[in-house]
Structure formats: structure tokens, C-alpha cells
Amino acid sequence: MVTKAPPRPAPLHRALRLAVAGGVAAASLMAVPQTAQASAAADGKEGSGTTLTVAVSQSVDSLSPFLAQKLVSTSIHRLAYEYLTNFDPKDARTVPGLATAWRSSPDKLTWTYTIRKDSKWSDGQQATAEDAAWTFRKMMTDPNAATANGSFTANFKKVSAPDPQTLVIELKKPQATMTALDVPIVPKHVWEKVSDFSKFNNDKQFPIVGNGPFVITDFKVDQYIKLKPNKGFWRGAPKFDELVFKYYKDGDAAVAALQKGEVSFVPNLTPAQAAALKSQPDIKVNDAPGRRFFALATNPGARARDGKAFGNGNKALLDPEVRKALFLAVDRATLVDKVFQGHAVEGEGYIPPRFGSYFWQPDAGQRRGYDPAKAGQVLDAAGYRQNGEGKRVGKDGKPLDFRILCHATDPNDKAVGKYLQEWWGKLGIGLKVECLDSVSDPWVKGDYDLAFDGWSVNPDPDYVLSIHTCGALPATPKDSGATDNFICDPRFDALYAQQAVEYDAAKRSALVKQMQSRLYDTGYMNVLAYPNALEAYRTDQIRSITTMPEAAGNLWGQDGYWSWWSAVPAAQASDGTSGSSSTGVIVGIGAAVVLVVGLGIFLGLRRRSTSDDRE
């Protein structure tokens, strides 16, 4: 919300193309501001007390970058901390972040990064290579510090900082994500005082020390998070005087707040909400191809790395023929038409079509289209026949009755759940839709049969693929892991290991597609749709803001801080006029293309998505 006075407290992962040449990777930053925002920052002009308020429907899991996995949390961390590299909002080229240049050794086992001299922590101390080295070493040596992003450092052999501007990472084997390490760098002098990384949520002392464009100044659980501009941010301070993420449990309440001008921006609109807002004055609706998939996750038998099983998942779902029948009894076209009202694409592969390099579709012989008659035949052949009452009976004589976890705040979950009850009911299969405010507790305990799942995906799929590997399982039933759905499949793991070290773009793409094919065939993940990004903001509060990508991109959940860093208050038109809205402002970040030894690859990262996330 734009206001002339501070608001009262209110209850609240890259279609990256790396060009190829020579044996050294390098990038340079051109300090030429190309927007009103950058110009104002260069002139030292401050904002006029405006506040940008973003409505969110997701609870923050942690303000610790070492623990946070939810999209709302990781989006905030992108604002508060620098990563080694960032991504151009126009075309997602890799560009400098905390590192201004990087190069690899000929064998690709040693990477050297040049750390910028003009980045300071918000408490005034200089950010150095030792901060980055300490961050990575802590993740390498403390399993609790590796909870959120440990997949990036699992292959690290040694990390050192020979001087304040030089970071050296030695690898055990080549790693294709070295210019896309999705890890917030934290200040060593603050975090080395933390004794238990499993319990420290970084939410007791404010302001929180960071070196990103914003500084976190206040937080109330399920109420709000407040941030102020980092006036010393090397790229230039944001234009709004305050950024507030305000929590709304109910989506309709968030939309009503937008209409009344109480918030500036609302993500994750339903088609009906978007349609209603399009006719409202001073409101701009952004409808763009999304980064997310919407899926059914099937409990494969929750277990830990020590081999111990836990949870109460229905064992009938361990039968691949049962999962196949459920696939065949889902009409994706109807879901896209009736639930998403055309604002989505039918799902099949794990990676949305927005990321063409890795997008996969099954061929005609492999595809499981809507065929309820065939689904019945599959069940009959597998020994699950209908009794006199029409109920499917399992091999143990018990009826096939399943539960599905549903986000109480997500209308799509509820709507799809009703269709599944109808379609599967005709097969003689019962389905109980269990809608909860938080699905996390039963999910991590393995106490579910099926669940509605979704992740925000970036062009490099390494992270969203890693969460289905055996190594992502919890160490023991009492521990937490990085797994999404307890999948542990040796064939999938073997393909994951191959793609992780493959620098050739075409070969890596082929491996990733094979992984998606394997996920599809196992039936543990049933991707139903790729929803569009439906979001809206007030043009009388936000004059201009950057989408990512610039052409037909999203604002919420970007791979970077571009949307909120670039946002210009309506009252601060650079030419002295009131200005008009634009959802494609080009952010002036002038940077050279990264060159990588003899290869061209597409890189990027993630995150999961209540509307954004399984919770």
C-alpha cells in the first residue's frame, strides 16, 4: 500500500544461456543506471515515505537461509542477502551478484570467484570472500545448516578465501550448477555465534544484518514481515521507503484489500478473481505463463535413509498398477477448462513448457490419457475387482479408499478434489479430501496417501530433481530431510548423478528428460497442469515494475529481487508527471555474458510453490 505515513502494524527459481569460449569464465558490471530508480539512487535521492504492501497466503517457515524452503521465505531471502550470481530479468542471462567474475580450471574441478569490493553488510562491515567461504563450509560440515540448500554443496571438496576478494571452491567431480548456486551468503561475524542451526530461526533480533537491496526490520508470525531499503546497496537502493509482506489466510480477503487500496499487490489469483479485477479502476492484472506445476503426489512408502519405514500411507498405492489406473482416470483437459478456466496448460512432464530446453512430453505409446474404461481394466487385471456394491476391493479384501491432503487456503485443491472423487468413485475407489491449514505435519510424518503438490521451477531443474533422490530422504524417521515425497528410485538417482556433472547442454537436457520420463512411469508424481501466473497490483500505487522474463513474465517469486527492487511509486514519476503503469520496465544491470570452458548450458533453480508450495 502506498501511504504518506508509516502504516500501523497489521495482522500478515532461469532460462539461462551461457555462451561458450576459451578456458576462462568472466563477467563484468557496467555501472550505468538505465532506469528512473537507478538514476535516483545514483543522485542520492530518497523516497517520500511510500510503502509497498504485498499480500501473501503462505506462512514463513524460517527466516534462517539455512532452513527456509517455502517460496515466501526464499523470496524474502533474495531481498535480504546477495548470492554469488544473479540473473538478468530481461533474458535470464547470468550476471554478477556478490561475485563480479568467475572462472573454472581446465578440468572444471576448481572454480574461482572474484568478490566485489562495494558490498557491505547493513551493519557497516565489509562483505568479503570469507563470508561466502564460511557459509559454504558451514553447510558442508553441519547437516542442520544444509537443510535447505545442501544439494549445492554436497559435491564440494574444499572452500577457501585466500584474500578478501577471492573465493575458491574445489569440487570432488564436475558440477553443472556452479554459476547458479542458489545459496544466500550470510555475514560470518553474525552467524558464527549461532550454536544450533536446527533451531535458530533468525527471528528474534531486528534489523537482520544482510547485504541485499532490503533489510528485514520486523516480523510477526502469520501477520507481517517488514523491510526497509538498504541505502548502501551497491546496485542502488529501492525506491519505496518500506516493503511489507502481509499475511492473508483467505484469498478473497486479500483481493478485497487490493480493491480498497490496503495492499499494493496480490499473487496467486483464481481465474474468477482475475476476471473481476480486470474491470476495476487503477488495477492491473498480470496473466503470464507460469513457473509452477500442479500435481498429485503419491506416498511411495515413507522411509528414512537408515531403511526404517514410517507413516500410514495406504500400501495399495505401492502397486504401480493402482497408480497407473489413477493416472488414467484423471481428465486433465477438464481440469484446465473448468478449474483453471483456461489459465493453465495440461501437465505431463515435471518441467513446465516455459523452460523449453528441459520440457518433456511422453510419446503416444507412453502417454496415459484420460481413459476410465482402460483404468478399470488395469485394476481388474491386477486383482482389484468390484464387489456387489461396486467398491474396488484390494488383494487383502479391503476396499480401495484413499485420503488426499489438501491446502485449505487453495480453491484449486478443493475443486480438483471434487473431480477426483467423481472420477475415481466411478471406478469404485473412495477418496476423502482432507483440507488443512497446514499440510506440513502429516506430510513430513508420512501420514497421507496422496497430496496436492506444486513447486516453482527455474530453467535449471537440478534442485527440483534433487528432492526426489534417495539422498534427500531424512537420515532417520525422527529427522527432517530435503525430500518432497519420499521417492527413492535407483534408476532416477543414476540419471540425476549423470546430469549433475554434464556440461554439454544437449546431453544434459536429454538426461533431464529421461528423469522426467522415469518419474512419469513410476506414477509417484502425476503432474496435472502448469498454471499461469495470475496476479494483480494497483497502478495508483505502483507506477512501474519489472516482470521476469521481461516479455510475459511473472512478478511474484522471481529468481532475483527485480520486481520489488525496481518498483517505482506512482507518486514518484521520474519525469515529474503522475506517470502510467508498465509491467515490463527494463532494469539497467548491464553485464557481460558469462563464458564457460568449452560448453553452453542452461542453468537455474527452483522453488516449491500452497498456491506456492505444499506448505
From TrEMBL:
Coiled-coil regions, chain positions: none
Gene3D superfamilies for the chain: Dipeptide-binding Protein, Domain 3, Periplasmic binding protein-like II
Subcellular location, principal: other
GO MF terms held by the record: peptide transmembrane transporter activity
GO process annotations (BP): peptide transport
Residues annotated as transmembrane: 584-605
Keywords assigned by UniProt, alphabetized: Membrane, Signal, Transmembrane, Transmembrane helix, Transport
Subcellular localization(s) per the UniProt record: Cell envelope
GO cellular component terms, A-Z: ATP-binding cassette (ABC) transporter complex; cell envelope; periplasmic space
Similarity-based family: Belongs to the bacterial solute-binding protein 5 family.
PANTHER family: PERIPLASMIC BINDING COMPONENT OF ABC TRANSPORTER, PERIPLASMIC OLIGOPEPTIDE-BINDING PROTEIN-RELATED
UniProt-recorded name of the protein: ABC transporter substrate-binding protein
UniProt lineage: Bacteria, Bacillati, Actinomycetota, Actinomycetes, Kitasatosporales
